[in-house]
Fold:
Amino acid sequence: MMTVDQESYETNDGKDYIDGPIALRFKGAWNPTRGDAWADLCEGEGTDEVWRQVFPASGGPPGLVKKAMVTAGTAEVLLDSCRRFARDCVKAETVVAGRGSDWSAFDRKTFVYAECEGEIHVQPALDCGRV
Structure:
């Protein structure tokens, strides 16, 4: 989504490393083509067709991608966008993950959306810095 009006921008303001103004600044520097399926992943022109070719629809022909994982943290401003992409485009099954999770919940899933409790957008980089 090309806007910052999703609820997670407000809910997670101050928790994440990025916020609405920073996201808009990145977008301005990038200068994407509005409506392009690769710039506006969920609302761009032709996105339904693009994602049907990439990810298989149930009962439909196989897609280009056989297995995928979308990840997001519940404390990131992009949470609503990630949820929508995972649900509507990837058709992923949601698994909520946190410390102490049973990781077998990911077994044998081909398209999964991992929603990580309390994590932010750059959490993997922060975790690597703690090692």
